[in-house]
């Protein structure tokens, strides 16, 4: 497939806008490097009447590629905003329209007015025009996609503030973006039902998606969640591991960083957490997509035991929570043959590539166990918020 221009990354993905090729007078405009037909997937078919018989959405590779395209659309929505491109000239719409979805809402950071997320809904009218009479089986009614860090001046400082918040506290709950994402997904669940909603994010956006998904799971609300290059909490811990002086310095830096806080949650579904049993909690199984050459997310594939690779097409395998009864708590997809250089290994493009070779790792992951441990520890007793004095 065509390659996107090289980008710079931090605890996230896409960043600065590439320069377009210069044209000679009278020549046709050159396509933008982020145009869907330039850097998008090559052999990814749009929904058609055949989906009435056999839905492409039941293929895990197809779903992965489409969700990745929706996240790319969020990056481009912000770039379109910065460069003052409208709906007709913007790059972003080309990344969701082929799949018969429409943009119904953008999530905007109140601190700098940047777009960090978007809600896409199945576009019945557009589908009907191509004789797709019903929504394909497995296709969500609505998708909430979250971008990562953009190293462009209008948004870089707010993005990096959340990056540092995660490194300092291993939590994103104090961010306005966490609150905005949780409120949006609550409203989507209320409108469409949790079984018809999908949540996806890349890098820093994957960090928000994971934390929001955990928050919902504690309330017994299970939303399908796709996490591309999620930031690893071990990155912060590794700074402290350099020695006592480094650890002391890190604590001083962390004290000056934004508080982890809790934010304000909309009353739609954000009320009292109920006590969950262990079997209930294990109904929520997030999908994680990791490249071992990306040091930001590779710790998710650091097993406590021996990793066993299985065929991604079977949907079998997954990550087992250590110290429990062997139940799969996450699906961990590892890029077996993909980009080796860090910037490309952390990029989003690899996940919509139609020639990607993935394996499902089956292992006892120490990091995933720690990330999801709060679900298990809170499932045996009521939340403090639910106990009346």
From TrEMBL:
InterPro entries: AB_hydrolase_fold (IPR029058). Residues 1-36 are annotated as: Disordered. Residues 1-18 have a biased composition (Low complexity). This is Uncharacterized protein.
């Amino acid at each position: 497939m065509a390659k996107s221009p090289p980008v710079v990354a931090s605890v996230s993905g896409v960043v600065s806008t590439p320069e377009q090729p210069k044209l000679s007078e009278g020549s046709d405009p050159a396509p933008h490097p982020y145009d869907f037909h330039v850097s998008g997937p090559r052999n990814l078919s749009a929904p058609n009447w055949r989906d009435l018989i056999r839905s492409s959405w039941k293929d895990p590779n197809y779903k992965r590629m489409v969700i990745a395209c929706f996240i790319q659309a969020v990056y481009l929505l912000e770039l379109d905003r910065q460069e003052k491109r409208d709906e007709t000239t913007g790059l972003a719409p080309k990344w969701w329209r082929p799949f018969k979805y429409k943009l119904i809402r953008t999530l905007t950071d109140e601190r700098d007015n940047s777009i960090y997320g978007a809600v896409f809904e199945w576009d019945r009218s557009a589908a009907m025009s191509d004789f797709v009479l019903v929504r394909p089986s497995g296709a969500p009614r609505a998708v909430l996609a979250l971008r990562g860090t953009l190293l462009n001046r209008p948004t870089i400082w707010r993005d990096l503030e959340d990056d540092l918040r995660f490194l300092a506290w291993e939590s994103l709950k104090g961010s306005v973006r966490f609150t905005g994402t949780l409120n949006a997904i609550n409203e989507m669940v209320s409108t469409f039902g949790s079984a018809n909603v999908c949540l996806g994010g890349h890098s820093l956006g994957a960090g928000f998606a994971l934390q929001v998904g955990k928050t919902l799971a504690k309330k017994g609300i299970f939303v399908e969640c796709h996490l591309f290059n999620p930031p690893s909490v071990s990155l912060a811990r590794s700074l402290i591991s350099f020695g006592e002086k480094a650890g002391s310095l890190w604590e001083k830096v962390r004290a000056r960083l934004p508080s982890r806080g809790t934010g304000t949650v909309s009353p739609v579904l954000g009320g009292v957490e109920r006590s969950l049993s262990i079997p209930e909690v294990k109904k929520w199984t997030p999908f994680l997509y990791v490249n071992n050459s990306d040091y930001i997310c590779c710790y998710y594939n650091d097993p406590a035991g021996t990793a066993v690779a299985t065929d991604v097409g079977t949907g079998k395998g997954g990550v087992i929570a250590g110290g429990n009864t062997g139940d799969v708590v996450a699906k961990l997809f590892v890029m077996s043959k993909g980009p080796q250089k860090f910037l490309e290994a952390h990029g989003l493009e690899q996940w919509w590539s139609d020639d990607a070779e993935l394996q499902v790792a089956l292992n006892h992951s120490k990091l995933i166990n720690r990330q999801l441990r709060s679900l298990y520890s809170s499932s045996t007793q009521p939340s403090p918020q639910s106990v009346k004095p």
